[in-house]
Amino acid sequence: MIASAAATRSKVLWSIIGWLVVLVFFFPVLWMWLEGLKTEPQAASSPPTIFFVPTLEEFQQVLSGDFPPFFINSAIASIGSTLLVLVLGLPAAYALSIRPVTQARDMLFFFISTRFLPFAASLVPLYLLARDLQLLDNILALILIYTTINLPLGVWLLRSFLLEIPTDLFEAARVDGAGFFREVTRIVLPLISPGLAATSLICLIFSWNEFFYAVNLTSSVAATAPLFLVSFISGRGLFYAKLAAAATLASLPVLLAGWIAQKQLIRGLTMGAVK
Questions:
Q1: Which of these, 194, 191, 184, lies nearest to 273 by C-alpha position?
Q2: Does residue 48 fall inside a structural domain?
Q3: In terms of residue numbers, what domain contains 137?
Q4: Separation of alpha carbons 109 and 181, rounded Å
Q5: Which of 11, 93, 130, 272 sits between 20 and 30 A of 234, alpha carbons compared?
Q6: How many domains would you assign to the chain?
Q7: 264 and 193 in contact (C-beta within 8 Å)?
Q8: Is 256 inside any structural domain?
Q9: Burial class (CB within 10 angstroms; exposed 0-12, middle 13-18, buried 19+) of 219
Q10: Phi-psi bin for 51: left (phi > 0), alpha (psi -120 to 50), beta?
Q11: CB 198 within 8 A of CB 88
Q12: Is residue 2 part of a domain?
C-alpha cells in the first residue's frame, strides 16, 4: 500500500511538472492568439489589457487584404519541396541502409555535412544562379532551395527508420523474386509510414517557416507568409493586433498538420530516428 501510494504521488507530481512545461512553451502561442482578438489600441496598451471583448475585426482585415497570395505561395513551396524530399530521399536512404554501397558511411556524412554550411554563405551563389536562370521571385526557385536544404535531413531520418526494419523481411522477399519497386511498395512504405509522416512534418515546418532565402530571392510574386508578417513593421509603428492575427493565420496550417498527424509523428519519432 505504501509503495502504491508513493507511486501514485510520483505520477501526479510528474503530471503537474509536465503540464507546467507545456504551459510555459504554449503560453507565447496563446498570447499571440489573444492579441489577435483585440483591437489595435488594446493590443498596444501598457500594461497589457487582460479583460476585453473578443473581436474578429483584425482577422477580417488580414484575410480581405493581401494575405491569401502569400499563404498560397507558402503552401506551394512547402508542400512541393516536402514531396520532392520524400521522392528523392527514400531511394537514397534505401541505398544507404538496405543495400548499402561500399562508401556508404562517407556518402552519409556528405549528405548531412551540407547542413553545416551557413545560409548566408550560400546566398550569393544561389542568387546569381537564380538570376541567370531567370528564377528570381519565382516559386520554383524556393521549391528547389527548400528541397536542397531539407533533403540531407530527410535522407538521415529515413535511413534511421529503414534500419529498424528486420532484414529477414527483405531476404524473404528477394527469395520470392521481389525487386526494388516491390520491396518499397509492399514492405518499406507500410512499415515506415509513421517515419514518413514524421519526416514530412519536420520538412514541412522548416520550409513553411523559412525566411532568409525568401526575403532575398523574392519580392512580390513569390513572396511567402513570413514576408507578409514583416510588412506590419514599418516606420508608422508596429501593428500588434494585425501582426498577431496574421501570425495566427500563418501558423494554423502547421499546427493543424501536427495535430492531425500527432499519432503518426509520435510513433515515427520513437522508431529510433530522433533520440
A1: 194
A2: no
A3: 59-273
A4: 26
A5: 130
A6: 1
A7: yes
A8: yes
A9: exposed
A10: beta
A11: no
A12: no
Name the DSSP class of 116. Answer: G
Determine the Cα–Cα distance for residues 160 and 98; give it in Å rounded to an integer. Answer: 11
Give the closest residue to 267 by CA, choosing from 216, 194, 201: 194
Structure confidence by residue, pLDDT tens digits, 48-65: 888 888 899 989 988 888
In a domain, 222, yes or no: yes
Dig out the grid coordinates for 245 from the structure. 492575427
Tell me: cis bond preceding 54? Omega within 30 of 0 counts: no
Q: 69 is written with which cell numbers?
A: 497570395
Q: How far apart are CA 238 and CA 246, in angstroms?
A: 13
Burial 26-42 (b: 16+ CB within 10 A, else e): eeeeeebebbbbbeeeb
Encode pLDDT of 251-270 as tens digits: 988 888 888 777 766 766 66
Residues of the chain with pLDDT under 70: 1-3, 5, 100-106, 235, 237, 264-265, 267-275
Q: What percentage of the chain reaches a pLDDT higher than 90? A: 32
User: Cell digits for 119?
Assistant: 545560409
Q: Check if the beta carbon of residue 70 is closer than 8 Å to that of residue 228.
A: yes
Strands of the chain (E only): list them: 233-234, 237-238
**Which CATH number is 221's domain given?**
1.10.3720.10
pLDDT at 141: 95
Cell of 108: 552519409
Contact residues for 107 (Cβ-Cβ < 8 A; gap 6+): 96, 101
CB atoms within 10 A of CB 242: 22
